[in-house]
Amino acid sequence: xxxxxxxxxxxxxxxxxxxxVGAAYYGMRxxxxxWVDSARNGMLLTFPLLSLSALSIVVLLVTxxxxxxxxxxxxxxxMPMYLKIxxxxxxxxxxxxxxxxxxxxxxxxxxxxxWDRDREFLPWVIVVSLTTLAFFLALNIFVENPFTRLWQFPxxxxxxxxxxxxxxxxxxxxxxxxxNPLLRHPGMIIHPPMLYLGFVSFVIPYAFAVAALVTGxxxxxxxxxxxxxxLWAWMFLSLGLVLGGRWAYDVLGWGGYWGWDPVExxxxxxxxxxxxxxxxxxxxxxxxxxxxWNMVLVILTYSLVIFGTFLTRSGVLSSVHAFAQSAVGPLFxxxxxxxxxxxxSLLLHxxxxxxxxxxxxxxxxxxxxxxxxxxxxxxILVVCFWGVIFPLISELFTGQKVTVGPPFYExxxxxxxxxxxxxxxxxxxxxxxxxxxxxxxxxxxxxAVVAIVAVLAVIAAGIVNPYALIxxxxxxxxxxxxxxxxxxxxxxxxxRHGESFFVALWELVKRNRRRxxxxxxxxxxxxxxxxxxxxxxxxxxxxxxxxxGESLTLGxxxxxxxxxxxxxxxxxxxxxxxxxxxxxxxxxxxxxxPRRDFFYDSQQPMTIPGVRSTIEDDxxxxxxxxEEISTNSATFKVYHxxxxxxxxxxxxxxxxxxxxxxxPEADTDPVPARNRKxxxxxxxx
Amino acid sequence: MMRYSRLTMxxxxxxxxxxxxxxxxxxxxxxxxxxxxxxDPDAPTDDEVNAIAREMYCPVCENVPLxxxxxxxxxxxxxxxxxxxxxxxxxAEIKAxxxxxxxxxxxxxxxxxxxxxxxxxxxxxxxxxxxYILYRGLQSWRQIEPVAVADxxxxxxxxxxxxxxxxxxEEELRRSQQ
Lengths: 685, 178
What we know:
The complex is a heterodimer. Chain A is an alpha+beta fold. Chain A has helices spanning 2-29, 33-62, 69-74, 81-86, 92-111, 122-143, 186-201, 203-215, 221-252, 262-287, 291-314, 329-349, 366-398, 406-426, 437-460, 466-497, 501-511, 513-538, 645-662, 673-680; strands spanning 149-152, 158-161, 169-170, 540-547, 551-554, 557-569, 573-584, 587-592, 595-599, 604-608, 610-613, 617-626, 633-642. Chain A folds into four domains: 1-179, Four Helix Bundle (Hemerythrin (Met), subunit A) (Up-down Bundle); 181-387, no CATH class; 408-538 and 647-662, no CATH class; 540-645, no CATH class. Helices cover 61% and strands 13% of the residues of chain A. In chain A, the strands form three sheets. In chain A, strands 5, 6, 7, 8, 9 and 10 form a six-stranded antiparallel sheet that branches. A four-stranded antiparallel sheet of chain A has the order 4-13-12-11. Chain B has six helices and no strands. In chain B, helix 2 packs across helix 3. The longest helix of chain B is centred in the last third of the chain and has 28 residues, at 117-144. Chain B has three domains: 1-42; 44-108, Helicase, Ruva Protein, domain 3 (Orthogonal Bundle), CATH 1.10.8.640; 115-177, no CATH class. Chains A and B meet through helix 10, helix 13, helix 14, helix 15 and helix 16 of A and helix 2, helix 5 and helix 6 of B.
């Protein structure tokens, strides 16, 4: 009953989406605004409809309806309520519904904005949004149906069908298989939603870009309309990535946060083009340049969003995220190909309309440096894309499977990322239009002195690794330059307006939130860089088998094996939990409890580290093995991860900065001349 | 690392073996000590095994490095690495052995041969091509308006900077407010 209801809601949403696409197109071609309004109402309707469908899945999940195949595959009776709810995105079919549901939320939200001034964009925004939505719904309806039930024939054979095959009856398994243990973690509650929010919200800027291309209204309006969408999308995507890293650090038990896994890269690639886009749109706004390039970036970002979902969902690449594999690959591939080719054709059609208004005047101007930033982001993208697809190419042409792992990505991307840090330090000091070595040098020398002092201090502390010193210099330079920008901005404003420093600072940030919010994001990136330098360059590890009372030393830390208990937890786990005491420089600093959980329902183990985390370093202990029954001895792997906490602190600063930059404010765009009259006349009731 | 002469090494090894056998004997007597492989000081340490395993991947648990993979199969691979190290094999020999047995996918990076070169050369070539295109683009944009840099205000010493800066700042703020 509930399953039929949910499935019905999916089908109706699909039909409404198709209707919306058709009505918007027809209304626009025939110049009949009523049809476009009808399509707009349809788009608004998709959100409540899909909410019903998603809610149906949640009800089935929490009420143990194991006759529904999806419910049986991702939940079990022993799972707590919150995990049963989050199992909505714990498997293939459910997560696609979840994707569509978020997409419909954004599509509905965009219909609610005031369209008076951008009426010509509306039909095309509807067409693009609803086409994307219809594609994902079609996947759910025809390939990955979350409402499929299990039916048993008298012969005992069980089949998965949506509707009852003749001669069969519903099959009720006694229990489900349970959620993949890797997903039973608080981080998993928010990591996929954030990532998906980031993915789907990038559809909106793309929809506006396509609308601008089709209608020929290729001024900056589409960029001004979507810049906040883009920032929000970017924030969600970034948070999704950081939370994924945090989850890996806490759950996957490899001592790191990022393993250059194809699915991680799949989420990272749209972030790269999205970040490049965020920077290069500023060139278009300030200087009227790079219009074509911005279109390329937004099209690439949309395609990479779909490609990212495709990589996760198609099973084309096997990875630690292998739980997300299925046979939807060819459909995704077709959809990406179709949208990419169509978008590029539209872009070529408008190529000449998008010619730059202004000219580049200096190699050191801010726009030139932003272009360099774009080159580096795209460079990293090429490395990532090529690394992800090369194993497929190799298998296709030589039949040989190869692994492209972390050493490749780190070697190739390291210098590019260092280049980005350098630009992050220099570009804020350069001026739009023109900058010379002299003006730039005049601005940069004070922060550079601070950065050099920081490096000397680090050398005095005994660190001589050249990569670390370069990284520390660049990071210090970014921090110094950013703080210096606040400082001299507030001083200059205070001097001109007779305001005190703090009032001037407040006014400065208030009057250009995007700029100064952006600088806070730069600071957060520097904090992330500190964490990355710490763990990538200075991580150390050791492993040893200890009898009770014996200890293992790593750097300043010593851990002693105290005891180990093996017991069954009420939620269907067998837990082996060790107690180790930790000393730093001979002083006790507490106990850690690394453990190994074994999930009976899915027959999978999971290694949960014991971590002592400080601003200086993390001491990270894994329980690798132990002597059964007697527990007299156990094997531990320990990592010393310097500075890694800076990454997580940087994430909070990052959220703060993005909120400042993206917080809504009144639409300050000048009203286009042809619309001015209409916009200024109050609408008649 | 300390080096021993061959004779001393042999003697040392035989003593070690004796110690190891005794340790195994006592380990069998004392329940719970069977995990303590480190009783033979010459046996490869876990860290030595992990140093090699870190750069390898088993074909089943793709994208999980061998040193941290928790499956039984990977534990057996690590045991095999330990065995080979114990027999005096070098890291390269051990890796070559696994490549022979299971194919190049066990390595963290494709071996530099044949088609695999593409994975290493395509990104730098693409980057250089991008850099060249960007350079040419900047050049052609500059040629259109070659005198623009002359707009640069003359340097008037450090004191004038804040006003110069504030004018620019105000201008940018004004423009962003539009």
